[in-house]
Amino acid sequence: MEKAIPAHVSVIMDGNGRWARQRGLERIQGHLEGVKSVRACTEECVRLGVKYLSVFAFSEENWGRPAAEVEFLMKLLGKTMIEELSTLMDNGVRFVVVGNRARLAPSLLSAIEDLENKTAKNDVLTLIVFLSYSGKWDILQAARRLAAELAADPGRSVGEQDFAAYLSTAAFPDPDLLIRTSGEQRISNYMLWQTAYTEFYFTDVLWPDFREEHLRTALEEYARRDRRYGKVK
Ligand code: IPE
Ligand code: IPE
Ligand code: MG
User: Fold this and answer.
1) Whose CA is nearest to atom 13 of ligand 1?
2) How far is ligand 3, taken at its centre, from the CA of residue 128, in Å?
3) Which amino acids are annotated catalytic?
C-alpha cells in the first residue's frame, strides 16, 4: 500500500520557553533554536512531497506577552525572512503570511511582502506562516466582509464553501494533519473552521528539539489513521 502523504501539514510550534528554561537560558534562546526546527521541517516536507506546511508562529493572544519578548519575536521574524530567502529559493518554496497584518510594524510588513513577492512563483512547497493570527479573528473578519456584501445582495445564498472563501486561508486546502509539540493538547485559537476534519498529533517533544525524524514519525502515524468524515467505511 502506498504511504499516505498529507497534502497539508500544520504545526502549533510550542515549548520554546520551556526548552530554554530547562537549559538555564532566556526564553528568547528557545525561539532562536526554534527557527532551526522550522528550516529542518520545511526541507523535510520538500523531500517527502508535502505540498503545504503551515506553522503557527504568533497568535493574537501572544501580543499580551511581556513587551521585550514580543519585540524580540518580531525582530527575529523580520531577520529570519531576510536570511531565509536563498534556502527558500533553493528548495522551490513559496512563502505566505496569514494573519492580522494591521497589527504588524511597517518594517516587518515590507520584509513579508518582499519575501512573498520573491518566492511567489515557487511551486514545490507552500510555507504558510500564521502571524498575529487567531481562529476567531479569522471567522469574524470573514463574517464582516460577507455581511457587507450581503447587504448589497440580500438574496444571495451562502453555503459552507462560500463562507470559507472569505477566510484568510481561502487559497489553501484545509490541514490534513495538525501537530502540536510540547505536550499541550489544545487548539489555542488556531484554525478553528479549517480543522473540522483534521487529524491531530500531539507529542511531548519541545519545538526546538522537533526535527526531521520527529516529523517523519508524525507522518507515519498519520498514514495509519482512518479518515471517515462521518461516513461508514
Ligand atoms: C512557542 O513557544 C512560541 C510562541 C508561542 C511564540 P512558547 O514561547 O509558547 O514556549 P512555552 O510554551 O512557554 O514553553
Ligand atoms: C500557541 O502557543 C500559539 C503559538 C504556537 C504561536 P501558546 O504557548 O501561545 O499557547 P497556550 O498559551 O499554551 O495555549
Ligand atoms: Mg507555549
Assistant:
1) 17
2) 19
3) 14, 62
Q: Which residues of 29-43 are buried (b: 16+ CB within 10 A; e: fewer)?
A: bbbbbbbebbbbbbb
- The answer to whether the CB of 99 is under 6 A from ligand 1 is no
Calculate the CA dihedral of residues 88, 53, 96, 89 and round it to 10 degrees: 10
141 pocket-lining for ligand 2 (C-beta < 6 Å): no
Please give the chain's pLDDT, 233 residues, in tens.
446 999 999 999 999 999 999 999 999 999 999 999 999 999 999 999 999 999 999 999 999 999 999 999 999 999 999 999 999 999 999 999 999 999 999 999 999 999 999 999 999 999 999 999 999 999 999 999 999 999 999 999 999 999 999 999 999 999 999 999 999 999 999 999 999 999 999 999 999 999 999 999 999 999 999 999 999 98
174: CA distance to ligand 3 center in Å?
23
191 pocket-lining for ligand 2 (C-beta < 6 Å) = no
- The pTM assigned to this predicted structure is 0.97
Q: Counting Cβ atoms within 10 Å, is residue 175 exposed (0-12), middle (13-18) or buried (19+)?
A: buried
Q: Among 3.40.30.10, 3.40.367.20, 3.40.1180.10, 3.40.50.300, name the CATH number for the domain at 8-134+174-224.
A: 3.40.1180.10
